[in-house]
Amino acid sequence: MGKHYTRQFKDQAMGLVIQQGYSASQAARELGMPDSTLMIWLRKAGWRKPIEEGPASDDPAVLKTQVQDLRRQLRRVEMERDILKKATAYFASQNP
Length: 96
What we know:
By secondary structure, the protein is mostly helical. It has 4 helices and no strands. Helix 1 (7-18) packs across helix 2 and helix 2 packs across helix 3.
């Protein structure tokens, strides 16, 4: 029998992909779990892998999706930046 994950863990793992813009394999690797398990959860939740960017489109639906993806990526980068700032400040205060 496989490992049992809590609902909270599943939600957080899927949130890394859906909300934070991580790839499924990257999120699974960082969480120390099989990427196939995370992919199953994502498929059951109705998530689809983003289509790789091709030539620019004038289709409003495509543009809306691209804007949403870019906003998600921006939130992720800003969050990572904030974490690095805090870590830098912490380690700088540790030096006598």
